[in-house]
Structure to design on (177 residues):
């Protein structure tokens, strides 16, 4: 299994152990790592049966102004920006994530804010036989989970987790197909 970490994260896959499929032909990623996982699965020549995207970074529904302000705030005080970001990631639970933290870069932030999920690439991947699973939290303060649900609904199995935020820390969930 190939796993890709989120913005400001490292080795956090154990947070998703309830859902991660540990097979040879599985690729998974969290948030920014979901972009990396998708690109890997889209371009690799190896077989990928399952692509699991946990709270995929999705900002194409946000304005250019929103994206530019995020970049400005990061450049002004990256430490304060990251602290605020991590508080929003943990919401609505206050869990200790200190062992998973790494400092994110402006280049990573720019990439995740400006990434465009292309429907043609998604269709091509599913035509190759890859099953896409999307995991979303109802109370996510980082992404618009209902917008992500609507975008991916035609292409993926979607697990919408009630009372959970970006880290999906509530086990009361149901599936949309």
């Amino acid at each position: 299994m190939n796993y890709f970490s989120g913005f400001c994260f490292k080795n956090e896959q154990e947070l998703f152990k309830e859902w991660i499929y540990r097979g040879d032909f599985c690729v998974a990623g969290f948030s920014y790592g979901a972009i990396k996982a998708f690109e890997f699965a889209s371009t690799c020549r190896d077989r990928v049966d399952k692509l699991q995207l946990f709270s995929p970074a999705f900002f194409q529904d946000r304005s250019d102004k929103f994206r530019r302000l995020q970049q400005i705030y990061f450049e002004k005080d990256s430490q304060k920006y990251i602290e605020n970001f991590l508080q929003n990631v943990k919401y609505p639970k206050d869990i200790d994530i200190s062992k998973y933290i790494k400092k994110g870069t402006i280049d990573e932030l720019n990439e995740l804010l400006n990434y465009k999920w292309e429907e043609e690439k998604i269709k091509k991947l599913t035509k190759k036989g890859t099953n896409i699973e999307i995991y979303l939290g109802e109370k996510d303060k980082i992404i618009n989970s209902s917008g992500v649900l609507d975008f991916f609904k035609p292409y993926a199995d979607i697990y919408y987790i009630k009372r959970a935020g970006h880290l999906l820390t509530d086990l009361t969930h149901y599936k949309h197909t």
